[in-house]
């Protein structure tokens, strides 16, 4: 038997997670490039960076929708 499956593929949208020093735009580590679908919600977790710690009030993870807000 021959079976034919049809699928429609959509390219994922790349986005970057940056690790910046508080009060500056200095990158403390190489940005992570991740991929997702526009309008869908994703949760990203902060990376551990030697010699640094998260400041009070800065969450260890962030939930966002690709294409909304300042992301």
Question: How would you portray this structure in words?
Answer:
By secondary structure, the protein is mainly beta. Helices cover 0% and strands 39% of the residues. The strands form 2 sheets. A two-stranded antiparallel ribbon has the order 1-2. A two-stranded antiparallel sheet has the order 3-4. The protein is elongated, with a radius of gyration of 17 Å. The model has no long low-confidence stretch (mean pLDDT 90).
Topology:
Blueprint: E1 13-20, E2 27-36, E3 41-45, E4 61-65
Antiparallel strand pairs: 1-2, 3-4
Q: Counting H and I runs of at least 4 residues, what is the number of helices?
A: 0
Which spans of ≥5 residues are poorly predicted at pLDDT below 50?
none
- What percent of residues adopt helix (DSSP H or I)? under 10%
Strand order of the largest sheet: 1-2
Percent range for β-strand residues: 35-45%
Major sheet characteristics: 2 strands, antiparallel
How much is the average pLDDT?
A: 90
Structural class: mainly beta
Number of DSSP E strands:
4
How are helices and strands ordered from N to C?
A: EEEE
What integer value in Å does the Rg equal?
Answer: 17 Å
Give the N-terminus to C-terminus distance in angstroms: 48 Å
Q: What is the quaternary state of this protein?
A: single chain
General form: elongated
Brief digest:
The chain is an all-beta fold and 71 residues long.
Descriptive labels:
0% helix; 4 strands; mainly beta; 71 residues; two-stranded antiparallel ribbon
């Amino acid at each position: 038997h021959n079976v034919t499956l049809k699928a429609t593929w959509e390219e994922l949208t790349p986005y970057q997670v940056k690790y910046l020093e508080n009060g500056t735009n200095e990158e403390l580590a190489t940005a992570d490039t991740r991929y997702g679908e526009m309008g869908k919600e994703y949760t990203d977790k902060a990376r551990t960076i030697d010699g640094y710690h998260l400041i009070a009030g800065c969450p260890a993870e962030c939930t966002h929708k690709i294409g909304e807000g300042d992301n």
